[in-house]
Amino acid sequence: MSGTATTSDWSFPRVWDAIAAAVPDRVAVACGPVQRTYGELADRAGRLASHLHFRGIRPGAKVAIDLVNRPEYLEVLYGALLLGAVPVNVNYRYGAGEIAYLLRDAEAEAVVTEAAFLPAVLEAVRSCEPAPIVLEVGDDYEAGLDAAGPDGAWRDRRPSGDDLLFLYTGGTTGMPKGVMWRTDDLYVALWQMGRPGTEPPDPVAAVRAGKQAGTALPACPLMHGTGLFITLSTLAGGGTVVLIDRTGLDPELVWGEVERNRVQILTIVGDAFARPLLSALDATPDAWDLCALRAITSSGVTWSPETKRGLLAHLPEVTLLDSLGASEGLMSRSAARAGDGEIKPARFAVNQRVKVLSDDGREVEPGSDEVGMVGVGGRIPLGYYRDPEKTAQTFRTVGGVRYSIPGDYATVDADGTIRLLGRGSATVNTGGEKVYPEEVELTLRQHADVFDCVVVGVPDERFGEKVVALVQPVNGDGTTEDDLRAWCRERGLAGYKIPRRVIALDTLLRAPNGKADYRLLREIALERLAAPEG
């Protein structure tokens, strides 16, 4: 299963099958009272593969997964890959129209869902031609497994590293796009995220030697890359994945599951997750025994220094890890520990794989203050499914090297570290000056009365756009617009970066993956600004 960077043939289902054969009684997945050992997970995935094959699913067919974080999510992904079919994530918050778009775009032939989402899925399926088969988790699903054996004609085909996994991303700045990952590339990229320049070792030899990846709890949805990637990594190392099968973030429940399962790695998405978790610890600091916890990892959105300091005050032995990357490519990590002294915003360094590239294809010179976009080379996706135009925009060849450039603006300091400025699609252009929302958001979140904030640009007759901050206060009142503008000024923000208006909201309506819908929030800002005062 191992090999060089160019000749390896890693396959998740082959690795999991081998681990199941070596340690069949080791717990692979825990979800409330339900536990699945590696042997049980492999058996149920094999039975599902047989059932899907009986229903007409063949190699290359797309199998959509519209589920919360439950064991069946991993069984479907495992079973589809065994067949050589392509797992496709579906955002469980989608309505029927959005589901229909995704199913048609992916050319899905099957969709696995659960009772809560079934009405929307059935409505979506009716608009698809041909209509995908629908399998509902519960009696329908279990009957399919009971009627099938774990083996069949499909076993004649050996899963390959060329098999694909689709990860649909976007939707806040346009319709979702299906990122196409070869499983071999994704396997190696996940390994190299924390171990740059090395090749994955034989996981089965490690398992036989008694080693295993730590017990991990993805508090974010498996339907998004952050939750899925830590889960794939954990299972590929023979570890245990702890799932919470409900929507939304319940901080007390998360800490309770960390304690009950002796979780070692907790995965979140920035302040949208970290701040409620910190608030729970602040309110009842002795409620949970968290001594097993060794790391909290975050990816995708800002994780502010003040929140990190608060968590480290409660959890001084824990390492806080920021991951730089996206569904389109995994880059590098930055660590913060209690003994580090001053905790600053996460910093990442340019290296052999990760560069900051100018519009004309040059590497940005360290210390030049030139703004470029972060790109990652090495093991990256093939592109977007059925979208050559967007593929060409994001996956570019520079200096003979193919990079994934998802759209994150950055500069490079003189010491070679990357200073992230924010996603290009959210950049505000005011009076000819570019304002990167993340910089302003980080400043505002440092204010004691600000729980969360998002910065957008709205049309302005004089400047083209003006900077507007939408703020979720800690207590709902007490902070004025002038206070927050003065706060930004005192912390050295240039005048054009200081929000012209600040709008207080009860919630910023973040998605389950913690990301902000800048398009929706911009519309809310426009409505609020247009409304008469009083």
Explain how this protein is built.
This protein is of the alpha/beta class. Among the domains are: 75 residues, Luciferase, domain 3 (Roll), CATH 2.30.38; 104 residues, ANL, C-terminal domain (GMP Synthetase, Chain A, domain 3, 2-Layer Sandwich). 33% of the residues lie in helices and 25% in strands. It has 16 helices and 27 strands. It has a 5-stranded mixed β-sheet. Strands 15-22-21-17-16 form a 5-stranded antiparallel β-sheet, covered by helices on one side. The longest helix has 17 residues. It is globular and about 70 Å long. The termini are far apart.
- CATH H-level superfamily title of the domain at 427-530: ANL, C-terminal domain
Could you give a short account of the major beta sheet? 5 strands, mixed
- The CATH architecture of the domain at 427-530 can be given as 2-Layer Sandwich
Bulk shape: globular
CATH class of the domain at 427-530, named: Alpha Beta
**What spatial order of strands do you see in the largest sheet?**
9-11-12-13-14
CA-atom Rg in angstroms = 23 Å
What percent strand? 25-35%
Would you tell me the structural class of the helices and strands?
Answer: alpha/beta
Mean pLDDT: 91
The DSSP helix count reads 16
- Measured between the Cα atoms of the first and last residue, the distance is 67 Å
CATH topology of the domain at 427-530: GMP Synthetase, Chain A, domain 3
* Helix proportion range: 25-40%
